[in-house]
Design brief:
Blueprint: E1 7-9, E2 22-25, E3 28-32, E4 35-50, E5 54-57, E6 62-67, E7 74-75, E8 80-84, H1 87-107, H2 112-143, H3 149-199, E9 202-204, E10 209-214, E11 221-222, E12 230-235, E13 240-247, E14 259-264, E15 267-284, E16 289-296, E17 307-323, E18 331-336, E19 339-344, E20 346-347, E21 355-360, E22 367-370
Antiparallel strand pairs: 1-4, 2-3, 3-22, 4-13, 4-17, 5-12, 6-8, 6-11, 7-10, 8-9, 10-12, 13-16, 14-15, 14-17, 15-16, 17-21, 18-19, 20-21
Helix pairs in contact: 1-3, 2-3
């Protein structure tokens, strides 16, 4: 950024109250001495902003599948702004929904899965019940001495095996149900996580306001890692503020409440006035400028992001100002009647854009001679 020095004198059309002028008279020119007002100011360019401006950005990358708003639309906090496409997440959720539906179908009371497991349990139960009956009959025979101990022990062993098989089948069914419920819970949690992730692909308004600018259109690619993740800007166009980018070396001279004069290309013959309201406490390291915000009385229509040029008034000086070039070694030529005389004057050393302030030696109405 090309730095602009502190500007003294005529910074805008209305700052200098009156114009210095020369009058040509034969072989020389004259300059009429008058009291005037000159200001010291700091120049800064900038733009019109809103005090509550929010740039809505995307957390994720992808193509803009749908834009729900356009410039000028009024939006509410939480309202969808845009939808970013992510087919992978949609497919994953679809696959999880299929798995969840399959598990829930298995858990239904009369599902094929339930009937098959109940049938296996019933078979094991019947085997166990038959083994118990055989055991009771053989036990009675053994007690009467009609069968050997080896035959009775074999029947007892068969009963033990049948009982274990039956209980094992029951436990297997119970474990299977627990596993299915665990899978259902796990899949539901995974789906919930994916839906939360998918929610990021629906960009929502973080505040109430109006859509001031739309940065992207449907079909554009959003890269969350770059500046191209901006979707829209939202704010209240009635809460206007003016941002001036002031070179950091001049910040110590600027105070809140100072007067500022603003020019817009849209209104070349108009000067708007305002006051400095805030000075940011951080400088931009690239441009070496500091944002200075002002409340400006725009009595004509303006829009956000309009470029402005401003002068922050540091001080105003009133007095007699004359062109520096007509002073020679502390002396000037003055017209008295028809005579030209040289007189001594006392002037400030400070240069006001080619003019100096006279402290002694001249008064209003004097006519200075130039070029004779």
């Amino acid at each position: 950024m090309v730095k602009k020095a502190v500007i003294f004198g005529i910074v805008l059309a209305l700052i200098l109250l009156g114009l210095f002028f020369y009058k040509k008279n034969n072989s020389y020119q004259t300059y009429k001495v008058e009291k005037r007002q000159v200001v010291k100011s700091v120049y800064a360019s900038g733009y019109i902003d809103t005090s509550d401006l929010v740039v809505v950005k995307s957390e994720v990358s992808g193509y803009v599948e749908k834009m729900y708003v356009k410039e000028g639309d009024t939006v509410k906090k939480g309202q969808p702004i845009a939808k970013i496409s992510n087919q992978t997440i949609y497919e994953n959720i679809k696959d999880i929904d299929y798995q969840i539906a399959s598990i829930r179908e298995k858990l239904l009371k009369n599902s094929p899965f339930q009937r098959e497991n109940q049938a296996q349990i019933e078979i094991k139960r019947q085997v166990y019940e038959n083994a118990k009956k055989i055991y009771e009959r053989r036990k009675a025979l053994f007690q009467k001495g009609l069968i050997s101990k080896e035959q009775f022990d074999e029947v007892a062993k068969n009963l033990e095996v049948a009982e274990k098989d039956y209980k094992k089948q029951l436990e297997l069914y119970k474990d299977t149900l627990q596993d299915l419920n665990f899978q259902l819970k796990s899949l539901s949690a995974k789906k919930n996580s994916l839906e939360k992730e998918l929610d990021k692909y629906i960009v929502k308004s973080p505040t109430d306001g109006k859509v001031l600018r739309k940065f992207l259109n449907e079909g554009d690619y959003v890269n969350s890692m770059t500046q191209s993740n901006q979707i829209v800007s939202i704010g209240d166009p009635n809460k206007i503020e003016t941002v001036l980018l002031v070179d950091e070396e001049y910040i110590p001279k600027i105070k809140e409440g100072m007067e500022v004069l603003i020019k817009l290309d849209s209104y070349p013959d108009k000067v708007f006035t305002g006051k400095i309201k805030t000075i940011e406490l951080q400088s931009d390291r690239n441009s070496r400028t500091v944002k200075v915000k002002a409340d400006v009385n725009y009595d004509l229509p303006v829009v956000v992001n309009m470029t402005v040029e401003g002068n922050i008034i540091l001080s105003k000086e009133e007095g007699i100002f004359i062109p520096k070039e007509i002073i020679s070694e502390g002396r000037v030529k003055i017209l008295q009647g028809n005579q030209v005389k040289e007189i001594n004057i006392q002037a400030e050393s400070e240069d006001y854009n080619g003019y100096v302030k006279v402290l002694k030696g001249l008064k209003e109405g004097d006519t200075l001679v130039i070029g004779k």
